[in-house]
Amino acid sequence: MKKSICTSTYSFRTLREGGFVYVDKTKEIFDLVRPETAQVFCARPRRFGKSLMISTLEALFQGDRELFEGLYITENEVPYNWEEYPVIHLNLTSCNASSPERLEAWLRHAVLLIADNYGLHLQENYAEIMFENLIIGLVKKSGKKAVLLLDEYDKPLTDSINNPKLEDIRSELEGFYGVIKAQEENLRFTFITGVTRFSQVSIFSKLNNLSDISMAKNYATMFGYTEEELLNYFGEHIADAVHSGVQDADGNTLGKDTFIEAIRAQYDGFCFFPDCETVYNPVSIGKFFNGDYLFKNYWYETATPSFLVDLARKKPLYLTDADNLIISESGLSAFNLQDFRNPSFSRIQLIELLLQTGYLTIADWAPNYGTADLFYRLRFPNEEVSLSFDRLLVRAYTGMDEGDSMVYVQRLIHSAFSGDTDQMVDLLKSFFTGFSYQVDKPDEGHFQTIVYCIFKLCGMHIRSEETTNIGRIDAVLHSGAHLYIIEFKFNKTAGGAVKQIENTKYAEKYILSAREHGRMVHLLGINFSLKDRNIIDEYKEKIVD
């Protein structure tokens, strides 16, 4: 019988008792918990199964062996002892950290709930003192060390990047997390998750024994699904999808092999250590199979932190920022939240944040050029995330909400496919109406990036910086029977842009093929104005037939 897929709960007990699909990750869990004591940290993007992992660990240390029947940890030749421990499970996902006072109150309340659950009476005091007394009390009552599971430790910080009280909020957390170091001897196992790796929080500055497995080879596939796991645990769902006549975005009916290729391109590709197997995003896969097998974008709605849009607005990104990008391990290790309060934070710091939030992933090792540091080459994980990145930039640069932008998208698709360049350029101008309020000092790269992202959002095939034998074309847009060779100018003239296309013979690469397929080639010059922050003067167009 085909098991159902549940994407609305992160409870291990619910998944196992309800007979839902559960991808067995207990081999990695077994390796983590085997030492007599361990303190572990792992950063992963949102919606990657961190809360489910925490819930699984909670059931494990509560001795709920029956929930693990048939999984690796019960079938392994080396037995697990199933000893029960008092568990402190703190999930900061819903934490109110709008001020240090509210954060303090939330932490006190969370600690009190756990104490009440174990029949402990804690005297009201500062949150960090209550936290320490909770650990000590549990150890005394049970005669065993406690287990600490801390989920989304950084949520109060990332939610407060634009909060003037950020430093006070960070200081409040630092004191609370400092208890973990002070009570190290009373903790059997500590597991901490979050999205980011911040260097100046006490978790990193004071916990000497904390093992960061965020980019550890042995745990690179502990979160997300490998392709083998996809085929094994979702085989019946795959068969049903193919039997139903599932189609790709272009309307092509897919067989099993082409279906796997399509789903791989859309949702696979996350890599957390160079040369390791990539993984699929688990929430996107679940929503895909539960959503009539539609190749939709689930990443943007479920995994985009709002602070990313604000930061991208302050430090605009270019198309080339994610092209063959190389970052260092030392740069990631020195990541500091406070840097984003400084208007002069670097674009590379924003790129590092995009890596940690899952918008970028590791492609492979990069040369270290004789240094002692490690370097990684980055890329977009898949088509879903690449399109989400485009949506993020359009939202950051133009200020348009999703509803408004989709109306324009439909009209822009129609104008491009019908060859109506008048309407197409008018719609592009509409996209730029909010631009002046979003970006401080725009340049040609900003405008070119937005145009590229807009057409990508439309689902059209557009290539930026297309190479010819004598130069690079700013953009080539394929729209059915119409092909556009586009050259962008900044504070110059649209006519000069078209002249450049003609002089450099950029269109020759496409004319023969266009004639064979009955396509019309448009030479389109677009000139932007710094003063108006929009397209100015009448664009010049020439049609090559």
Quick recap of the structure?
The protein has helices spanning 12-17, 26-33, 50-61, 72-75, 100-117, 127-142, 155-158, 166-182, 202-206, 227-233, 235-243, 256-267, 282-290, 299-303, 306-314, 329-333, 347-356, 383-398, 402-418, 421-431, 444-457, 494-504, 508-516; strands at residues 38-43, 87-91, 146-151, 187-194, 210-212, 326-328, 361-366, 375-379, 461-467, 472-479, 482-490, 520-529, 534-535, 541-544.
Description:
Helix 19 (402-418) runs antiparallel to helix 20. Helices cover 43% and strands 15% of the residues. The protein folds into 4 domains: 12-214, Rossmann fold (3-Layer(aba) Sandwich); 227-296, no CATH class; 302-384, no CATH class; 399-544, Trna Endonuclease, Chain: A, domain 1. By secondary structure, it is of the alpha/beta class. It is built from 23 helices and 14 strands. The termini are far apart.
